[in-house]
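Researcher: Go.
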Amino acid sequence: MKIPDMRLSAASLAHRANAAGSRMSRFVFVGFALCAVLGADKKSPEGHGEDESVAITATVLSPEQLIQAVGSDFESNYTVLDVRVTPKGGKPYLVHLDDFILRSESSGEHSGPFLAASQIAGAGAMVVKHTYGHRVNGDSPRPLEGTKLEMKDDASADPALDALKKKMLTESTVTDAVSGLLFFPLTKEKPKNLILSYKTPQSKLRLSFK
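Model: Structure:
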């Protein structure tokens, strides 16, 4: 009986290796494509509230989104919301920035927004300084003990100042929807722990972020 030759030629081995490599490359490409699609579909945390006079929609911006919008993330010193105000009833509506209050349910810290771009990126911009206490144990976060604002001692304004002036929400009387950025001196806060309160002529809206 003739014993079959089990040896493979070098050409055959090379062909099989190339085929396996081609299949692996396709798998890697599909994996990267799937990750890109999933990343593109990731939705930013958003909150919405409305009454008979106005509808408010607010989105928490990531540092990357802020860089795309104005060219800087300002060292992540702020929580930044992209806010859209939509008046109802066709009547003039006053957008007053002091009506916005952002609160952290985890730390209890709360603040209104900065009112001008120069407070964030001007030559005398305000810088947020936090002080923290000691951890209760190794797994617990350091408790926030205090927050204060200090004037930045720079001779020149941040290059992002001009972009900020165009992007920030400003006080005005409007009849159509208007949108812009609001900067709050809250740092290292998870969106799920944030509550945006907004006082309207008729009620007080409370927005959580999902």
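Model: The first strand starts at residue 46 and ends at 50.
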